[in-house]
Specification:
- The chain is mostly helical.
- The chain folds into two domains: 222 residues, Rhopdopsin 7-helix transmembrane proteins; 113 residues, Arc Repressor Mutant, subunit A, CATH 1.10.10.
- Helix 3 runs antiparallel to helix 5.
- The longest helix is centred in the N-terminal third of the chain and has 30 residues.
- It is elongated, with a radius of gyration of 25 Å.
- It starts with a helix and ends with a helix.
Length: 361
Amino acid sequence: MDEYLAISIASVWMTVALGCGVLVWIKRKEVPDRSRTILSLLSFAAVLCVPFYLFAPVFEHELTGQTTQLLSPQLCIGGLWAITLFVCYPIEVIRPYGLRGRWLALHFLPAVLVTLPVLLGLHFHELHSWADLRANIGEFDVLLRLLCLLLLGIISLVLLFVPYNWRISSADNRWIRRTTLVSQGITVLFYFSALSNQPVFFYLHVIWGIFASLFFFYFELVTRLVPPAGKEPIQKADKTAAAPALSKGNLWPRICQVMDEWEEWRNPNTTVETVSHAIGSNRSYVGQAIREHTGLTFNDFMNQKRIEFMASELRREPGQDQKTLYFEAGFRSRTAAYRNFVKFMGCSPTDYATGAGASAR
């Protein structure tokens, strides 16, 4: 039963990884960075590694008569390499061409350092129970495996600390948080796999890997918006003017300044908290002021600004690339941009552009 389940899970992941990897490779030149190249290469690597990852415990049992080891050295070091490679794609999305030179070397340095003792012939104790682990806890090879687990957990959080400029990045804070949760899910399930003799955790780990693959491929091929090629990034508005002391009654002029002069709606990470901080107030007063003057929630107010910008640009130039407009308006998802355009304009961007073009003629 376990063998059939393993074959089924491996087949699904390999099919998803191979099919989507080929598709992304074919379409890799549609984006101005290396993200699709990295994602496709990682997919091909998964196709090669998944069978070994799933069936290594089976082969070990056949050869030694023992169940899967606790903290198997191949699993620990391989897992560290896997998570190091896994986060390369989201790092490229967050900070295009950020992984090169010394930053690329630093990113792979932990995995390289823990691999060196293995290449030098380090002997590993076999750990088949928690009693074995406690008895050998002070041995270098055991400490090295525990270090791998620690580094794996740290790397799964690295996306939260990658500096990025939203003007040239196709990521936003929401996507970064979601991707970090995906990588943490992989890490947690890996911990259960490495610290137990239960094959079920291997299978759950691979199933979560399938989900992670689909999450990335859907984002890359369906929803992701990329910066327009060959255009200057949006210039940062001048915010040097000091915010006056505000009372609840005179918030609206300052909110209008933030939105109309600073164009904070272009920033996909703008929230009611960031606006409140910018004008020296609190989120409750800001939200209330917006509702009193527009009848909209803060999010609808922001999205209305974005859609008004898109509509104005489509009237000016009906034939321009709509995905570029989505990005410049502050959206980072095609579906969100399309949904809000229909919500506020009553038709799709294509229909609106067609009508604008007909009126111009």
